[in-house]
Amino acid sequence: MEPVIRVHSKTVVISSSNIDTDQIIPARFLTTTTKEGLGRQLFADWRYHADGSPNPHFVLNRPESHGAQILVAGRNFGCGSSREHAPWALLDFGFRAVISTEIADIFTGNSLKNGLLPIVVDAATSAWLLEHPGADVDIDLESKRLTLPTGVSVSFPLDAFARHCLLNGIDELGYLRSKTADIERYEAARTW
Questions:
Q1: By residue range, what is the domain housing residue 75?
Q2: Number of domains present in the structure of the chain
Q3: Which residue from 33, 77, 89, 191 has the least number of CB within 10 angstroms?
Q4: What's the pTM?
């Protein structure tokens, strides 16, 4: 997992509310246990016509969206089932962060464990972002601040342990492995 310290990128806006995990990555693509290639199926039912051809009206298929690392969405993003494939697909597509006024708890947990930064912002910040697709936004994980191109900067909540893992590019298992020497010292000192 790559460390997430700062993300500076233009945004892609999908203003719909209640985007569930089946819309993010439809269930028919959940047969894999690998992350690679899932970005091709991200929002598949919206990105592609029934014949498999790209829908030119869907935002991710437009040239101005290419290379964007920040997705701005309407409220209640990631609701629905608890599939870990949803953040996998977003990451494989190239997103590093999702911004909304509300992000589902299970989706948040799955995202943080896989290196995708879910950012919850206030209604005014969200409204500005939704009205300005393609805006260059700066996310600083060390200070937990999101800065708009207007210069407005807002803080966002983030669990301290999740922040530590993201900044260091490790997951929970990686964190435990980093403590192997301490664990072995503790076990050696115990009298069984």
A1: 6-189
A2: 1
A3: 191
A4: 0.92
